[in-house]
Fold this sequence. Notes:
- This protein is of the alpha/beta class.
- The chain contains 13 helices and 17 strands.
- The protein has a seven-stranded mixed beta sheet, with helices on both faces. It has a six-stranded mixed beta sheet with strand order 14-13-12-15-16-17. A four-stranded antiparallel beta sheet has the order 1-2-3-9.
- The protein is globular and about 65 Å long.
- The model has no long low-confidence stretch (mean pLDDT 94).
Amino acid sequence: MDKCRCCNAPSPHVFLPMGAHPPANMFVPPADAAKPQPAFSLDMAACLDCGLIQIEDQIPADFFRHYLYVPSGAQTMHGHFEQTAQVLTKLADGGLIVDIGCNDGLLLGACIRLGAKTLGVDPAANLVPLAKERGVEVHVAYFNPETARELLAARGPAKVIVTTNTFNHIGDLDSFMQGVAILLAADGSFVIEVPQALELLKRNRFDNIYQEHVSEFSLLSLKRLGERFGFRLVHVDPIAVHGGSMRVQLQRESLGSFPSESVLELLDAEEAYGIHDRVTYDAFAARIEAVRRQLIDKIDALRSEGKKIAGYGAPAKGNTLLNYFGIGPDRIDFLVDKNPLKHGLLSPGMKIPIRGVEAIEAEKPDVLLVLAWNFFDEIRSQQAGFEQGGGKFLMPLPEPALLP
């Protein structure tokens, strides 16, 4: 990359080159197991001006037209979106809420139950029937200035534009922000929920970056990006989902709103941690290498004891970890996932078989490597029988630990 996609500062610092990876949600049918997968370089770089952690956008055009991740697969997300819907509905005050990257409609369905007017935008046509079951109208398209003008003509301005765990997928943030500037009402709010770079750095969450998650945002990076398009960052709420995220609210500068105390506090915390310092990122890369060695040694030691190991979850972040660390079917017998769209497929790159969660009871693994670590509390509760029977959970991050 020759410049930062948020603030345009030149030459982001490459600190963790992870080699070539297939797209993390490009699961493989067993019949295609012998075929090579397309793979693209995954080199983490940091903007030392604004603290954006980023990779080059190399996903093929139209990749998101068919998508396998759905938030409704995790019970945690139901409760989270219920709470988010209350925030959005209050901000909208009877106006239109547009959710960009609405997926299966889980968030907008909660908004509808609160009486809100809604519209979803998503390029994944295969998810539209799931959203419609929740009463959500979906405009199937990528969001850009052309889409924004089309929606403005058809539905009028949006009082709230929201994007949850989608903004980090966008390679061309300038085009996206131009669309927001077109569609958002003069007194409207643009609300972004994304994992935050500071939490990634503190907790060794390198796997949050993959071919679809091209950015891990600092609050400063969102502030700088908004300013380039006439927006002011006015509020931020830390939220627990996805291992440490933030809900950020931007408004047009013409409204004259001042940043809340929470904005100033998080900006200060980022500065104090060293988001502008090269050594911060180089130290992170050294920790990840140590984690890689420790995790492989722990898995190999368990295998040498005759233990059967399965992976819980086949999330995109898990595929980043498996591919970068080189953990394949010689170390992990199979993966389980609650999402039926992934059952019977092989994981990208490592090509580990993916089965339903019921395979845990049928195959009785001794250890579950928790790849969906962001939902560990929910997983542990659901797998109480596994744990009571002597099963153990292997947590890979922030450093390998065998529980209990």
